Amino acid sequence: xxxxxxxxxxxxxxxxxxxxxxxxxxxxxxxxxxxxxxxxxxxxxxxxxxxxxxxxxxxxxxxxxxxxxxxxxxxxxxxxxxxxxxxxxxxxxxxxxxxxxxxxxxxxxxxxxxxxxxxxxxxxxxxxxxxxxxxxxxxxxxxxxxxxxxxxxxxxxx
Length: 158
What we know:
Layout: H1 3-32, H2 38-74, H3 81-117, H4 123-152
């Protein structure tokens, strides 16, 4: 197998890990927040934070590095429309994800504290959860578009 194919496999695998972990975490966090179980919310929010640090963060860093290396090896110009759009959408997703990480950390701390004290979650938790959800929608939509661009490499403009 060539270096290019190994890097391409790594790039695809890490993109699946990044988006898959994000989608899975979002699924569990979204639905656990509707249960009213403070104990479950504390546990799931703690695990979501852990998944982001262990899986999402490294792949977020490695994705553009491996993608740019692949573009260079394949001879694609970085000003190719599909690359420009993919990078812009990736940046948009990142701009949504960074505040989500902060929100998740705060939500995990609030849920843990409420559970330990046997109290309900504070209103701030619910505000954070709503913002967390609304930031996730454009982030995931952008990443779906990036997947399309990576696979189709469409000629968007001349």
